[in-house]
Amino acid sequence: MAQLFDFRHPPFDSLSDVDHRRVESAADLAYFPAGSTVMAAGSPVDSLFVIAKGQMAEFEGSECRTVYGAQDSVDPRALISGSTGLDYRALDDTLAWQIPRSLLLELTQRNVQFAAYFYQSVAQKLAALADRPMQRELRPALVAKVQQTYITPPIWLTDDDTVLIAAEQMRARHCSTVLVRGPLGPGVFTLSDLRNVVIDGRNPAETPLGDYAQRTLHTVDEDAHVFEAMLTMARHTVQRVLVTRAGAIVGVLEQVNLLSYLSNNSQIVATQIERAGSVAELKSAADSMTRLVELLHGSGVKVTLIAGLVSELHRKMLARLFALLAPADMLDHVCLLMLGSEGRGEQILPTDQDNALIIADGYDHPQLAEVCEQFNAALITLGYPPCPGDIMARNPFWRRSVHGFRHALDEWVDSASGENVMHLAIWSDAVAVAGQVQLLTTLQQHLGRRVQGNDAYLGRFAFVIEQFDQQPGLLSQWLGHHDTDIDLKKAGIFPIVHGVRTLALAHGVPASNSYQRLDQLASQGHLSTTLAQDLAESLALLQGLYLKTGLQRRQRGEAVSYRISPAQLGTLERDLLKDALKVVRQFRALLRQRYHLQAL
Fold it and tell me: Which residues form the Cyclic nucleotide-binding domain (predicted)?
């Protein structure tokens, strides 16, 4: 065993020699044939699996969420909770060390770093920790005081109050726990207890809380370190602890709130943005957004959810920045826009900025150009490079009156040159960020009247997909070997995004986000449900691979790029990428047929 189990990898590298021997004595080597189920959703977890050879994958239904390889610990969060909500299967013949849960939980009681690692894994995949960059981020949080976290104020009821009253309080206060006073001392009543009341067939309006309140309380002082709260939760396998001050209960620390604190969650960033009083303070929020993306990606959160969250925070940031720079009355006469991938809500990593400003007809302000110049310069400071095509509000081409933009839209439709088509493509993804939304609505309605039913123009608009295809033999090359680099944007992301954009323009779909456009196109019968789902899944895979490789490049200090080397992908990722490219090919064929692109 000592020659086979590798203690150099986290979290086992934090154990002492004595603990090494205990792990060696308790661990068994298990074999799982390819395709076999290692853990099923809902099953109890009594061991941690550490892969010695082979691969396992985490599935939510039929969707593969995570792949684990050699030296990876499989879903450490399940070790803490005692059960798993997902399926885990061997992708090929796999050998894995099976270490008893009881031993590992015992080790967490005596080793803070070991315990912290298991909680840390809730916010990131262990496989992504080769250099452990997130550990450095979490260390300050681990030694913070409990009172600095998100403590829920206590809601006190009595043993004689009914379960219905408790449920009403939970709904009104948006919480999952109430505290109970009674002759037996304080107790806790949670949503789990409420579930038990229903399962037992009791009437909540007549059942006293005292019948179900839990009297075994786990507490931590508000001046204790965060890792002490983590250890208490791990030691007793509980989802919350009561926070005390001088022995008196002053609140409840829920596990979800503790993990949110450790993860530097989105609410913190949103609050930073809302409270920012300067560009420097917004810079702090922008840096937090980058760390948030790394943490969410490391935890296996779907790329679509990350993109949606980042997009919302980005909108708030742009709106706050413009409000800091512009005179108070200016927002009554202008509309600030995000364009392109920012407008679609699909830019996760800050590559460049695409923005514009609509000005109400007849309005003028002596500081307007200066404010836009300052706005774009500040975005550069926040980490958003200038757009290579100068698609920015400081550029008069993208800062016009309503009349001026209406004239531009007409010109882009009437003269469908390659440049004008791309201008319209960028514009069609526009989303209002601040100011008077109606200014954008008016222009989009005008655009709809110009293009809907105009198949001749829509054909020229869609034809850009053909011009963008610079790797015509890519799929056939892939089926043979994997030594050819691939540009994710050219090969898949752009054809899907622009094809969906074309159909959205054709059918008056108001959404700007590609996934929302697909949903609406399918629901209206303009695209088959199966193809819409395949396109959404393929786009998510491609954007996920871009995010994964982009984060890796950022950590190495390299420029983010859409080019990836298939040889550096795992077997499952390569297979999924092949499937995605087949879907793209199918979608291209549909667009060619619908808009007669081969005749253009």
Answer: 11-56
pLDDT value of residue 138: 47
Q: Helix, strand, or coil here: 525? A: coil
Angstrom distance (rounded) from CA 242 to CA 443: 55
- If one counts every other C-beta atom within 10 angstroms of the C-beta of residue 453, the result is 11
Instruction: Give me the pLDDT at residue 259, please.
Output: 67
pLDDT of residue 122: 33
Distance from C-alpha of 257 to C-alpha of 564, rounded to nearest angstrom: 37
> CA-to-CA distance for 420 and 409, rounded, in angstroms?
9
What is the 8-class DSSP label of residue 346? -
Using DSSP's 3-state secondary structure scheme, residue 289 falls into helix
Is the CB of residue 231 less than 8 Å from the CB of residue 109? yes
**Cα 530 off chain centre by:** 24
pLDDT for position 121: 38
Mean pLDDT, range 358-378, rounded to an integer: 97
pLDDT per residue as tens digits for the range 168-219: 998 888 788 999 999 999 999 998 899 899 999 999 999 999 999 999 999 9
Q: Do the beta carbons of residue 167 and residue 158 sit within 8 Å?
A: no
CA 286 – CA 288 distance, rounded (Å) = 5
Over residues 446-459, mean pLDDT: 94
Which domains are present in the chain? Answer: 12-101 (2.60.120.10), 147-262 (3.10.580.10), 279-289+300-450 (3.30.460), 464-599 (1.20.120)
